[in-house]
Specification:
Elements: E1 3-7, H1 11-23, E2 27-31, H2 34-41, E3 48-52, H3 60-70, E4 75-80, H4 84-92, E5 97-101, H5 105-118, E6 131-133, E7 136-139, E8 144-147, E9 150-151, H6 156-167, E10 173-174, H7 175-183, H8 193-205, E11 215-218, E12 222-225
Parallel strand pairs: 1-2, 1-3, 3-4, 4-5
Antiparallel strand pairs: 6-7, 7-8, 8-9, 10-12, 11-12
Length: 228
């Protein structure tokens, strides 16, 4: 049974989602202040955190940054409907995905399950061997990635995206494919989450000697990991 932590000061809404998630066989705890939620998120007791970006005592982005300093636990953001700035800032700060408020409990469950399917420590793939593309090494079972033998500090979603690109290195992977395979959901119209995550991955990989990125943008199509 996956353990989920909800950090949201809207008591009525948090309890509604808690009840629904419990019916869906999740173990759920709630925190109604940011600092209490931060302590719980870093306890190591949970598989996923649902974090509201608007909290009374501390900004959700500040909580997210503090979580990312110590943990790679998947974080799903609650954002205001139509507020693209909050979504982009949250994704840049290390969130794995977002759900705009108001949302239905069914949509929330679908997002949670999609993230958890992609972040299981034991991979269900038949191919469990190390995947190597140039200086990049991907270890699916332990969900670790190495760049020139140095461990990459990736969020769960960043790892998923890089793994998808690595498995199709040298080929163009569309944003729709990346969203389906890495986020576990169709790409929504005007959704920039893939672009934000890719920007973060590029920064962590650095550039080639000629100044070009290892991950190329193919305009109008998608992304491609350069196969050396």
């Amino acid at each position: 049974m996956a353990k989920v932590l909800i950090i949201d000061d809207d008591v009525e809404l948090a309890e509604l989602f808690q009840e629904y998630l419990q019916q869906e066989q999740f173990s759920v705890d709630t925190c109604f202040t940011g600092m209490e939620g931060l302590d719980a998120a870093l306890s190591g007791d949970y598989d996923l955190v649902i974090l509201d970006m608007m909290l009374p005592d501390i900004k959700g982005t500040d909580i997210l940054l503090k979580i990312r300093q110590q943990s790679l636990i998947p974080v799903l953001m609650f954002t205001a409907k139509g507020d693209d700035i909050d979504r982009i800032i949250g994704l840049e700060s290390g969130a794995d995905d977002y759900v705009p408020k108001p949302c239905t409990p069914r949509e929330l469950v679908a997002r949670i399950r999609a993230i958890l399917r992609r972040t299981e420590l034991v991979s269900d793939r038949n191919d469990k061997h190390q995947l190597t593309v140039g200086p990049l090494s991907i270890h699916a079972e332990t969900r670790q990635a190495f760049w020139f033998e140095d461990a990459l500090d990736l969020t769960s979603t960043e790892f998923n995206l890089l793994e998808v690109l690595a498995r199709q290195a040298g080929q163009v992977v569309t944003k729709q494919e990346l969203s389906q395979q890495a986020l576990g959901r169709p790409l929504a119209r005007f959704d920039r989450s893939i672009d934000v995550h890719m920007s973060s991955i590029r920064q962590k990989l650095g550039k080639q000697a000629d100044g070009h990125h290892y991950i190329q943008t193919i305009r109008g199509q998608g992304y491609q990991l350069i196969k050396e």
